[in-house]
Amino acid sequence: MAPKIEIVASTRAILGESPFWDSDRNCLWWVDIDGGRLHRLDDDDHDSVVFETTEPLGSAIIKKDGTFILALGKGLVELDSSGNTSELALSPSGDRFNDAKCDPKGRLYVGSLTYDRTPGACALYRFDRRNGLVAAISGVTLSNGMGWSPSGEEMYFIDTPTRTIQAYHYDPEEGRIGEGRVLVDFAEVTGNPDGMAVDSAGCIWVVMARAGFLRRISPSGETLEVIK
Question: Is residue 22 annotated as a catalytic residue, yes or no?
């Protein structure tokens, strides 16, 4: 049976990105990057804007207490329950932050991008309050989707202009990124790899930007399904 695609929120976002399900609150959070809005979509399909700013909002990470860490413009900020923000760190290169995600142990990773797409000028960073931002993967041009295998022993990462998914050996206990390899090469595929999620079977879902479809990819790199 063909997958059924439905519109659940007609919000007219400028650049909708980074959705994630919040099982504690039974809602979906997502951002409109260029609109500078953090959205909450409840399970009754009601969508509301819970935070709005004039800066690009690359992604949002929710904490256990319901507050957020936002990739806001060129910095990481904390958003409290009253809607107030406090700065945590600034982008070392002065470039805008984009996708952010936590590893299975809760370590925060956030990537950056340059608007002029200067090759290799950016990085994927790991952040904690003691060490601040530390470059985990350097030489990045447009940091995008990332995810981890169910075991946590493999990390997947997209630097969009390379048109690949890189797979890295990962130490989930220490948070160390090891040797990497090309898992998938999209050179002959329409669209640009963008956001990513890993399902419970270990398969990778990738959004192909400017093409209008999703690809489901096995842990070995085989395309299993294309949804248009």
Answer: no
CATH number for the domain harbouring residue 176: 2.120.10.30
Options 32, 103, 159, 194, the catalytic residue: 194
Please count the structural domains in the chain.
1
Domain range for 148 is: 16-192
Residue type, 179: E
Is 225 within the bounds of a domain? no
For the question of whether the overall pTM of this predicted structure is more than 0.85, the answer is yes
pLDDT digits (tens, 9 = 90+) for 172-221: 999 999 999 999 999 999 999 999 999 999 999 999 999 989 999 999 99
